[in-house]
């Protein structure tokens, strides 16, 4: 007897990140595709995790996260954004930012609710919406600066709009919101009752002296928002999968209902280590300069190439046009670059629900200097 199964995500296959990383491995290519560093985290963090494990801190953490860690997150949030988040009722530690994004969507989106998504976007948003029975409503960001067309956003809002998902600094483009964007969003919330999910995982990677315009800096926005952050991005520990969500008590209450049945809690020794290491404020306060230097190095190394680099104001991603090299689609050029040039990249069209191809690819520059130099040497030969 054959088994018939109707997929809940019929349009979802293996992610492009896994595909390109596997292709890079097969062809011995330098992997500038998936967004992870090829350098290690601070050694003090490893020592702190080891100490926590050896002293027996290996059992379940409280589902919302260690209180000591939530207290440190509250202090950090107050320092950076002037927002006081209550550790007991408004902060939840999660198993990565992706879990936090999923839990937030699942907590508030009912079947038939509309969720406005700004495209291109991180690939977990839409599947999470669809699994909750929601309807994604897409608004394209302006090309090539990937700024928000607020008039178009407003035109997409209806009485069914439950949630607006925003992301700054923006993956994949590296665009960064300005205060004018927060002002425009605030005006919309004064006329429409939607909630906000703000993906701020690259909050410490904003370049050229600009501030990170967090939703938490505007009380009117913070009172209706889930704000998601990532220790994996901040501490070069993407494999640890530790993130957190800040939201008002009412939203957090619903968020935790989902979280407790999704992962229940996050690895205890990792939480102890991060709680202790958060006292090293200099790490996250200097992270923007650290990555800006890598951005500038990579740009200088590609200056003589035929790639046209688009502006990068934040994250650790650099977009580039390749029209002087090829007229292939961005998916085909990405595969060609991996197989023939020996550098793996990501096609930006995969971040659009309809595969819109603007012949742009994404490099990740969260790499050692020698990795960037070796990749640039290959790319400049094209």
From TrEMBL:
<dbReference type="InterPro" id="IPR015422">
    <property type="entry name" value="PyrdxlP-dep_Trfase_small"/>
</dbReference>
<dbReference type="InterPro" id="IPR051326">
    <property type="entry name" value="Kynurenine-oxoglutarate_AT"/>
</dbReference>
<keyword id="KW-0663">Pyridoxal phosphate</keyword>
<dbReference type="GO" id="GO:0005737">
    <property type="term" value="C:cytoplasm"/>
</dbReference>
<dbReference type="GO" id="GO:0030170">
    <property type="term" value="F:pyridoxal phosphate binding"/>
</dbReference>
<feature type="domain" description="Aminotransferase class I/classII large">
    <location>
        <begin position="30"/>
        <end position="379"/>
    </location>
</feature>
<dbReference type="InterPro" id="IPR015421">
    <property type="entry name" value="PyrdxlP-dep_Trfase_major"/>
</dbReference>
<protein>
    <submittedName>
        <fullName>Pyridoxal phosphate-dependent aminotransferase</fullName>
    </submittedName>
</protein>
<keyword id="KW-0032">Aminotransferase</keyword>
<comment type="similarity">
    <text>Belongs to the class-I pyridoxal-phosphate-dependent aminotransferase family.</text>
</comment>
<dbReference type="Pfam" id="PF00155">
    <property type="entry name" value="Aminotran_1_2"/>
</dbReference>
<dbReference type="InterPro" id="IPR004839">
    <property type="entry name" value="Aminotransferase_I/II_large"/>
</dbReference>
<keyword id="KW-0808">Transferase</keyword>
<dbReference type="InterPro" id="IPR015424">
    <property type="entry name" value="PyrdxlP-dep_Trfase"/>
</dbReference>
<dbReference type="GO" id="GO:0016212">
    <property type="term" value="F:kynurenine-oxoglutarate transaminase activity"/>
</dbReference>
């Amino acid at each position: 007897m054959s088994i018939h199964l109707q997929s809940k995500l019929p349009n979802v296959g293996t992610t492009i990140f896994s595909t390109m990383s596997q292709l890079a491995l097969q062809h011995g290519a330098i992997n500038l595709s998936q967004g992870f560093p090829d350098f290690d985290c601070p050694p003090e963090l490893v020592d702190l995790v080891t100490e926590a494990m050896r002293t027996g801190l290996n059992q379940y953490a409280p589902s919302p996260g260690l209180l000591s860690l939530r207290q440190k997150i509250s202090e950090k949030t107050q320092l950076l954004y002037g927002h006081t988040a209550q550790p007991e009722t408004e902060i939840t530690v999660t198993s990565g930012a992706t879990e936090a994004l999923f839990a937030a969507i699942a907590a508030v989106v009912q079947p038939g609710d509309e969720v406005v998504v700004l495209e291109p976007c991180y690939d977990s948003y839409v599947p999470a919406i669809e699994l909750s029975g929601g309807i994604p409503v897409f608004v394209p960001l302006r090309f090539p600066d990937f700024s928000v067309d607020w008039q178009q956003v407003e035109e997409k809002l209806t009485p069914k709009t439950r949630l607006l998902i925003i992301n700054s600094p923006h993956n994949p483009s590296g665009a960064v919101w300005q205060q004018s964007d927060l002002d425009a969003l605030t005006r919309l919330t004064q006329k429409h009752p939607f909630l906000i999910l703000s993906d701020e995982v690259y909050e410490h990677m904003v370049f050229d002296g600009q501030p990170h315009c967090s939703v938490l800096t505007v009380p009117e926005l913070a009172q209706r928002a889930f704000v998601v952050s990532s220790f994996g991005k901040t501490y070069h520990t993407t494999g640890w999968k530790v993130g957190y969500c800040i939201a008002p008590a009412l939203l957090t209450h619903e968020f935790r209902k989902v979280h407790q049945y999704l992962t229940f809690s996050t690895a205890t020794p990792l939480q102890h280590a991060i709680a202790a290491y958060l006292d090293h404020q200099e790490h996250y306060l200097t992270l923007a300069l650290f990555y800006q230097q890598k951005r500038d190095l990579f740009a200088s190394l590609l200056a003589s190439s035929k790639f046209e680099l688009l502006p990068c104001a934040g994250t650790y991603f650099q977009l580039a046009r390749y029209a002087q090299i090829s007229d292939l689609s961005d998916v085909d050029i990405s595969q060609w670059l991996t197989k023939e040039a020996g550098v793996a990249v990501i096609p930006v069209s995969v971040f659009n629900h309809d595969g819109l191809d603007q012949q742009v690819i994404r490099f990740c520059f969260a790499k050692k200097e020698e990795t960037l130099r070796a990749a640039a040497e290959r790319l400049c030969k094209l």
